[in-house]
UniProtKB/TrEMBL annotation:
Organism: Rhipidura dahli
Transmembrane segments: none
InterPro entries linked to this entry: Leu-rich_rpt, LRR_dom_sf
Domain of life: Eukaryota
Protein name: LRC43 protein
Length: 322
């Protein structure tokens, strides 16, 4: 427990790829006897099977029928279903270490993972690694397959990018670091073309980044960057925040989940050449809507003239913490 490898083993146990109706067993043992050659070929649907064994069609139906005791919950990912069906049609492909070669997308969400361990390198075809909502504080790039194109680490405790940028996957196109503990200005130097030559999408939302000028100077080197999310950082409170970014990064298409149109780009044209407009201060407007659980003060103002009833006064204090 605590590592990606351990979480993956638990994931395999949950899927039951070697258990009925998947894998090889008494329900399809003749298929094992007929596959001793070095070349592995998936079983054909409709092929004849000996008495006492199940056809691939029957086994697949046990996986797909929502009323079957072997069916996965409706909210399971397509990868879950695909792996189980492969374990029926070609169980040899998922036996032993071969299972690591079959995985191109790995999603381990909210499983208490603390470490991206060296075992992740066994996934030699891995293109997408989603590790959101865990307890990861740092990621060693030497433990990441060089085939990765998507790395999602949102809702973790990452506070430094140095280890991640030592030897990052060169083909990475999306890096998700939202809702972590990154703070500037030391982190900006890791967000350049030297480390991420193919990065298209970057999520740094809801961290503690404050140096807008420093961050923009680094991000401007990312020639392929088209999607950027920075909302939730203190630097997003700067009045000229969006306009400065739009004008400074002309290739950007989406900022904070909002498309950048030609009109907006024209509106902020030239703002990038006026950094003096960026101030280290911001303004926050707070409006209080409906309040529940407190007495209605108007109910105590209906006393008759000359009434001797006690008058009760209520006062409230609202505190904002930033």
């Amino acid at each position: 427990p605590g590592s990606v490898s351990a979480a993956f083993q638990e994931y395999l146990r949950h899927l039951g790829l070697q258990d009925f109706p998947c894998g090889l067993g008494s329900w399809n043992k003749s298929r094992l006897d007929g596959r001793r050659s070095s070349r592995v070929e998936p079983a054909g649907l409709g092929e004849a099977v000996p008495p006492g064994e199940e056809t691939p069609e029957t086994l697949l139906e046990l996986l797909r029928d929502q009323h079957s005791p072997w069916a996965l919950p409706p909210d399971c990912s397509p990868q879950h279903r695909l792996l189980r069906e492969v374990a029926v049609l070609a169980p040899e492909l998922l036996r032993g270490s071969r299972v690591f070669q079959a995985v191109k997308s790995l999603r381990i969400l909210d499983k208490g993972v603390e470490e991206v361990d060296e075992g992740v390198l066994r996934f030699q075809q891995l293109e997408e690694l989603i590790l959101s909502a865990n307890h990861i504080s740092k990621v060693t790039s030497a433990h990441l397959p060089q085939t990765l194109k998507v790395l999602e680490l949102c809702y973790n405790a990452v506070n430094d990018l140095q280890d991640l940028c030592a030897r990052p996957p060169p083909e990475l196109q999306h890096l998700g670091l939202g809702y972590n503990q990154l703070s500037g200005p030391s982190q900006e130097k890791h967000l350049t073309l030297d480390f991420w030559p193919n990065l298209v999408s970057l999520d740094l939302s809801f961290n503690s980044l404050t140096d807008l000028l420093g961050l923009v100077s680094q991000l401007s080197t990312l020639q392929n960057l088209r999607i950027l999310v920075l909302q939730g950082n203190p630097l997003a409170l700067i009045p000229t925040y969006r306009g400065f970014l739009v004008d400074s990064l002309p290739k950007l298409s989406i900022l904070d989940d909002i498309h950048i149109g030609p009109e907006e780009r024209q509106q902020f044209h030239g703002l990038a050449r006026q950094p003096e407009l960026i101030r280290s201060e911001g303004r926050v407007v707070v409006s209080v809507g409906e309040m529940k659980g407190i007495p209605d003060p108007t109910a105590f103002q209906q006393l008759k003239v000359g009434s001797e009833g006690p008058v009760i006064t209520y006062s409230y204090c609202v505190t904002y913490e930033f």
